Task: structure prediction
Amino acid sequence: MTDSSLRHLRGKTAIAGVATFGCGEAPGYSDMDLLANAARRAVADAGLTMKDIDGVCTASVLATMWPMEVVENLGINARFIDGTMIGGSSFVAHLMPAMLALESGQCDAVLVCYGSAQRTSTLNRKEVAAARRRMDPQPYEHPYQPMMPLSAYALAASRHMHEFGTTREQLAAVAVAARQWAQRNPDAFMRDPLSVEQVLSSRMVSDPLTVRDSCLVTDGGGAYVLVRAERARDLPKPPVYVLGSGTAVWHRQISSMPDLTVTAAKQSGAAAYQMAGMTAKDMHIAELYDAFTINTILFLEDLGFCAKGEGGAFVEDGHIAPGGSLPVNTNGGGLSWGHPGMYGIFATIEAVRQLRGEGGERQAGQADTAIVQGNGGTLSSQSTAILGSAAAL
Amino acid sequence: MSTDDNKVKPEGAAAVMYAARLAEGDFQIQRCRRCETAFFYPRELCPACGSGEVEWFAPSGRGQVYATTTVRRRAEAGGDYNVALIDLEEGPRLMSRVEGIEPQAVAIGMAVRARVAVSDGQGLLLFDAQETEKGSAQ
Ligand SMILES: [Zn+2]
Result:
């Protein structure tokens, strides 16, 4: 008999190593160079060598056969490869196939890795967008020239404001909280003070979202290493156990999203909670993919931290800022730490650092449980991970 | 000779048929013959039940703004413009642009009516703001 809750996988694997590299600006480095440096550091952090790695999960926004390039570049002979590409949530979604591969015995150590030189790359985002219009046409949206992905999130924000009375001030509170966390993180890209008034008066891009409601454009590499739990306990760093994992995709194009105020995080989150046997009340911290300020509000609601429609009031009351009841995006998030194209891996890495107590000045107290929400496309793919220290097992 | 399973339609797939009609100013969408779900964008299978038995029909053209944004653009480049999601009376939602009023004045819930703009042999589906729900007859 199968157990669709996947409860039997709870705590069976653990993240043993994490690393970032070149986050911010990395002139002279390619996507692969950033990935390779992050990979080496993550493997070392796990107390392993690259020869120990026999599984790879990776994705690229540009290369269609990226896993082969990664295997070749790093010199890995992989027994398990997953190249699932569902946008920024991919590296959170990679947890499930990686867990299954470890549990089945297909492989012993999986490297999940990513790199992006999008900020300093000579191939600018306009050129990428133009190429994508040819290679991956969306003939029912592109003719109207939405500024993607931003306009999609702006449409979702417009609907949330209409249905629930959410205000621009409440959206701005998300950016301000992220900045307050970033001010405690020396690796964050933007650390100047930021007020609600400054967000409101910053350049409007696609109403109601301003440039300060939008994630940064930075370079960066990130990687983590997943092993079976019993092995993780013999490695140098405190294991961070995977307690729950779930992924859901409801659409690709924003015009096909069933309800712009409810994301597939509701489904991915429910699956992850079920596997973990936990609820929102059990989460000490949350790392929620904040590509835009509306994301944080939507995910707080869809993951059960507040009722649908109450996300705006929740963030305005200071719950997610330093000192609040629920530390959210403790590194400064995509809004202020940085956003190298696909942020999911960086949200995961920050959760691991917090659960290990390695947050330094931004450490959110004693954190034993964390929820990570990966988002991809235009609110299209959602992947949730619940991670925990040994105390959460 | 191809078997039935291998035969393609001489007029092409649904997406091509839609574009060909639109280029002649004719806006048609699809409906499933099995489960009667009307849907957009044009495709080969009904997304509600998976059936391949789908038919074309002309929707009323009446719709309502579901979500809206004004994309800011420099005046030299053409100025600000609207991008909206429209719910058609028949159910399907699609992306379009509401014209006839300032982009900032487009509001959720506003009644709109479809219009096809044809230029250079291509059709573009647009929507005009209606003064009132009933005003769509003008
Ligand atoms: Zn059907």
